[in-house]
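can u do me a favor
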């Protein structure tokens, strides 16, 4: 298996990189929490880091992006996984932080594998289904020609960055959505729900679709330029719009004085590229990872996103905003 080979290779590569992950006397514990979307990547990095550094314990939790930020700014965690940028009202009175992009992700639109009548949905159709107050409850209401079959909806919970991004990308306003759907911050719950419901339609992180392809059916999305399915290539080249996005880790600035924390974050940025595809994500460009390393080494705090989730923003956009005066850094 690829992961087994990586488990053998990464500690050797890291050992050649100096004190970042040499295992030379590092000890302590690191608490990571937040997005269930980002968790598989953080868990993979943590696993390889602990092999190279057996004296350090890294624990990864999944409270959702919003729940993770709440813990982070209360000082309960060292690193927060996030599938969207931090919001200004989440940092008020909290700790200074360093924002680091680590990969790309796509939001997959999925149905039960028994659904054989739909291949693609337009953004307008998704908007009509998920709009606040929507009464669409049957597939025949989605498009003429679809059969009369109950439509049941599954999606990320309101504490999830996936929910925030999906609602803005599809509905034009973050958090604007009908409430009568099965919601969970645990993406595995959504996978199980869609897999067991013949009338299901859901949105989940691409990584969770790729890990459960035998249980789900992937739909394409048409934003007006033709139908495109989520996948590594379409997420990376930007053609899967508007449901592609960067994902992040946030590091408490005051914890970067801890050698174990510094080593873990450096290891994360050095090894996210080979590990991301193994857990269903799309690596950033080499240039973007280099810029993230520079940002971390310089201790640059704050967010370059002024208003939280922003649809269609690339990592290159983020890097160009490095010195933006409207950053949301904590005091």
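np, heres the sequence
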């Amino acid at each position: 298996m690829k992961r087994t080979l990586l488990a053998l290779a990464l500690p050797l590569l890291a050992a050649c990189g100096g004190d970042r992950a040499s295992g030379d006397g590092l000890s302590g514990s690191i608490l990571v929490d937040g997005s269930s979307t980002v968790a598989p990547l953080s868990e993979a990095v943590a696993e390889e880091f602990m092999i190279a550094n057996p004296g350090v314990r890294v624990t990864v939790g999944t409270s959702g992006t919003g729940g993770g930020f709440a813990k982070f700014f209360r000082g309960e965690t060292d690193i927060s996984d996030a599938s969207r940028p931090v919001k200004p009202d989440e940092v008020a009175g909290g700790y200074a932080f360093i924002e680091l992009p680590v990969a790309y992700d796509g939001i997959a639109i999925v149905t039960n594998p028994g659904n054989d009548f739909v291949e693609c949905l337009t953004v307008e159709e998704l908007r009509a289904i998920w709009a606040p107050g929507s009464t669409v409850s049957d597939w025949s209401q989605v498009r003429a020609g679809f059969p009369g079959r109950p439509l049941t909806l599954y999606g990320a919970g309101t504490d999830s960055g996936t929910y925030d991004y999906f609602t803005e990308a599809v509905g034009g306003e973050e958090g604007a959505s009908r409430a009568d759907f099965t919601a969970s911050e645990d993406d595995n719950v959504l996978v199980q729900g869609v897999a067991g419901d013949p009338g299901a339609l859901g949105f989940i992180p691409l990584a969770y679709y790729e890990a459960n392809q035998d249980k789900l059916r992937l739909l394409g999305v048409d934003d007006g330029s033709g139908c495109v399915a989520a996948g590594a290539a379409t997420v990376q080249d930007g053609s899967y719009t508007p449901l592609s996005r960067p994902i992040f880790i946030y590091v408490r600035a005051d914890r970067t004085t801890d050698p174990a924390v510094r080593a873990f974050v450096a290891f994360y940025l050095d090894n996210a590229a080979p590990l991301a595809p193994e857990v269903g994500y799309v690596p950033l460009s080499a240039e973007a990872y280099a810029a993230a390393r520079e940002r971390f080494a310089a201790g640059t705090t704050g967010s370059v996103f002024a208003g939280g989730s922003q649809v269609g923003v690339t990592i290159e956009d983020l890097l160009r905003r490095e010195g933006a005066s409207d950053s949301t850094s904590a005091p």
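The chain has twelve helices and eleven strands. hope that helps!!
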